[in-house]
Specification:
10 helices, alpha+beta, 217 residues, 6 strands, 3-stranded antiparallel sheet
Length: 217
């Protein structure tokens, strides 16, 4: 029988965490004890065990969207592999209901240069103004841009709408003929800020802002 891989934790914490796992079989109860930059590694380390218990998809989704910075240091190929190993119907079920359409017009805001400028990312939004906010929130990052795609339904992993962060986020699996197009002129980020009514634009400084990172993966 597979055992929980706890290499992310100091040795003195592992026995207590292992006992908690035996009682609850709940990855989230363990991930809350970790830095949110470690949770995806924890899920990767325990992929087969979580599959055996039928909880891999929920753990993966919790880890991926729980990061307050981003996954820019992770290889997109590894993240792609992790999502491919998940059951699509289970991933759908943990999000909000998917609208009844075959193709989704989605937007993604990016900034910066080089490796961190992931145009073909996993996190998109149905709101162009939200994408503009993410593209421009860090004034020290050059070349903020909003891209759009027409994403077939089959590549949508989860719809993270009103029940989540109210960003109308869609997690997708980047696909071979994906062709992001630059949106011009840039959508107005202030429209989305007003829509939040004191939410993410409330002025409270997050870990993400303090560390100077931009997008999730």
């Amino acid at each position: 029988m597979r055992e929980l891989n706890l290499r992310a934790f100091p040795p003195e914490q592992r026995e207590h965490i292992r006992q908690d796992w035996e009682e609850q079989k709940d990855p989230l109860s363990i991930m809350v004890l970790m830095s949110n930059q470690q949770t995806l590694r924890f899920v990767f380390d325990n992929m087969l065990l979580f599959h055996e218990h039928g909880i891999y998809e929920k753990a993966l989704l919790d880890a991926f969207i729980g990061c307050r910075v981003n996954w820019a240091t992770w290889s997109p190929d590894v993240i792609h592999y992790m999502f491919e190993r998940g059951d699509k119907e289970k991933l759908h079920s943990y999000g909000d209901p998917l609208p009844d359409k075959n193709v989704f017009t989605l937007y993604r805001g990016v900034a910066g240069v080089g490796r961190a400028r992931r145009v073909r990312g996993f996190s998109w939004t149905a709101n162009p103004h939200c994408a503009a906010w993410f593209a421009t929130r860090f004034c020290d990052l050059p070349n903020p841009t909003v891209f759009t795609i027409e994403c077939p339904r089959e590549y949508v992993l989860a719809h993270l709408g009103p029940s989540f962060r109210n960003e109308e986020e869609y997690l997708i699996l980047p696909y071979p003929d994906m062709k992001p197009k630059k949106v011009e002129p840039m959508p107005d980020k202030e429209v989305w800020s007003v829509q939040q009514k004191g939410g993410i634009d409330s002025g409270e400084k997050t870990d993400t802002e303090e560390n100077g990172f931009s997008l999730s993966a």
